[in-house]
Amino acid sequence: MTRAQLDLEKQLREYAVQYEREFETTAQMEQGIIARIATTPREARQAPTLRRDLALAAVLLLFVGLLAVGIARIRLQQPLPAHPSPTAPYPGGASRSSSPFFVSPEVGWIQWSTNDSPSGALFKTTDAGTHWQRQLTLDVGPMGGCALDVSATEGLYICIRGSYRTSDGGAHWQRLDLPSGENIAFAFLNSREAWTASSSLFHTTDAGQHWTEVVKLDQVKGLSHGDSLGWGQFMFRDALSGWLVPRGYLGPGPSPPRSSPYLYRTRDGGKTWTQQTLSPTVGGAFTDISLPQFFNDRNGVLIVSAPEGMYAYSTSDGGDHWSRPRPLTVSVPPCTRIPRKCLPVGAGAVVFGDSRHWFLAAGQSLARSSDGGQHWEVLANVLSADVEFAGLGFIDANNGWASVVGTTQSVNGQYRTVDGGAHWTLVAFPNGG
Amino acid sequence: MRSLGRPAVKLAFMMVQDKNVAEEIVQEAFARLWASSRTPAAESDFRRYLYRTVANLAHDHHRKLGRLSALPIPSRSPADPLDEIERRSGGETLKTALLALPLRERQALYLRFFEDQSFAETARMMGAPQVTVRVLVHRGLATLRRILASDLSADRVAT
Q: How far off is chain A from B16, nearest CA to CA, in Å?
């Protein structure tokens, strides 16, 4: 081992001591765990043993009772970042979240943990969530994050730790071998064609039956600033054209603004990338940039966050060129009821129903536009009093889904709207069976 | 017993860098382990399950974010002198460099150097082969060296 290696390892261990000191005791954390355990049913087992139950209970309570955790003195980051939305189906691809993934107002899938499948299961609905049919039980332990795309016949379900494919619209799923290790990032073009990044970028055109290595991640040309396919977010508009955006800042403290917004473009399916530098914002800096959202093969938009606000950049030539920044004059009331779970407004928070209908949620309010972001209407308090928006997705101008966080307990379901966000109703998720 | 609660939140925080999210993750992890009939009662096995659950929930969190956090508008509060001291002492630089690592590499380095776990135990905790963990650690250290050598703050600014 070289001296440099020894020095770095010593630095890490020294920093570990410093890191340890930053955690303090808090009773609130302990109470939260106890409360969760107290209301969480245990799944039935074939041969329950009282001794084992008592041992596990004792272990858990001791862990919780002696829990000496807390991060009170850590320089507190800003509130929870917004969850990006499941994107609406449109020509060109992006990762489709499986929480939930809807192809129409009635037909969709979700991955959900139930009492009898704590690792998760995939459920399908054909009646907008009134009924759910279990299609797949994940049997290989926690799968990590997932994304899914399914047509009437084929489909692909990619998770960080495993993948599945279907050739009958989801009635049956077949476990796939991962191309290499775990899937760190992935993007879909449609239900047959997708890319996944692990140690290399891999590509499939047959819903995961076969994968082709496009390029090893450490041999990708054209990326700089420490950006990587394995870390950033990427999407493909067709088999060859794709975009990668730089990773967001994960803390601590406020993000240092970067100068002119930029992203990367590939024209050869991901082998090589070139930087596209966008026109600077008014303040001359940016903190966050969304993936491009295409409405057809020519027209699209992306959002950039800057210290002074958000901007929209549009394209009418398939992403070859991007317009000058257009300020988005939207402001949603800051949330106050659940301060620690407030959603700050950022580039990834803008959701597109179609080219004209855009949405943005924060707290209990929803802002919506029907003219491509030029004018916004804010609908306050659209959710019930004890929940706030945690994620948002629209498949068209009217039909959308929202995940929420509750003030006192978790919510077993998501909210649905059929009138463009004016009204929301809770759709319960399956609880086993 | 003490060795499980604190590291669970420390691990969660190392991966998500948000107090609230880290707490949620640890709560959820405990709840899931409690709910599952497959959770072992032996401490060492329980610890592995807990760590794996925490790490997977952290991955879920980042996956939901699309690995691109929506960034809040920076506050205009005055700079904290302690922050500056820490930054100049190098602690902030290493911390920032760690946060630039992919989650799996960061997790592997955390278990190896923050908890002094062996490669074998780190592999068991991550649910990965030992050779994979060695690659992750090697790659993570190489990336850290490169970042620390090239001055991370300059690297962030687009040229």
A: 7
